[in-house]
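Much of the work behind modern protein science is quiet bookkeeping, done one molecule at a time. The protein below has been through that process, and both of its lines are reproduced in full.
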Amino acid sequence: MNEEWNLELKDHVALLTINRPKSMNALNTTMCEELEEILTNLEKNPEVRVLIITGAGEKSFIAGADIDQMPTMTPEGAKYLIDVGHKVFAHIENVNFPVIAAINGYALGGGLELALRADIRICSKNAKFGLPEIKLGVIAGWGGPAKLAGIVGVGRTKDMLYTGKFIKSDKALEYGLVTEIFESVEELQKGALALAREIAEKPPITMAINKKMMESAEKSNFQPNPQADALALAYCFTTQDTREGVNAFIEKRAPKFIGM
């Protein structure tokens, strides 16, 4: 546990809460460095099958990069912030278990960019999304425009990027930016845990393969890859969990997956 973040692990679900209320949970350079260390440690822990990332409180998920460090920021410091942010965001995207962004309030700038790297995004009704960097004369430098365009389309991304406008949760659902809206932050927290536990019950090796296959599909413009599919299924049948899943289905019982 840290003053600026909290990490809990229960039933194979890791819950990471960003807790920087004075800055609306904004990310500074130190927080990005710590996130990278957290992810590295979680990936080494075989007990972790799903990660939820959320923000403390009811107003903000992550309100972007921390503006408080910008007045004294040098060009070298700015470059390093972008570099370390890209490193940790890529890690979120490529980590070998699913990541859920539970968006409770503002997801702005770097907060939206982080959420875009999650596998699944869900939000509370009060959530708002935007890339408002243009209003400060800076750019969205953590890959947000490219990732957002891949999800909501180029035109909608340009509209948000060039104006700095925010969109509400209902519009985010319409755009496909989130998959579910909850009436309150409390309901969001319950929903995120329920979703994570459902995923955590599945075989982790097969889950990791599914995630890699989706990443490959995105990179290939969603073209089928028969050879990769064949190799992936063949590998599944080298695992105990696939045998357990098949046998449990035949025997009409719940499977017990152990990650082997």
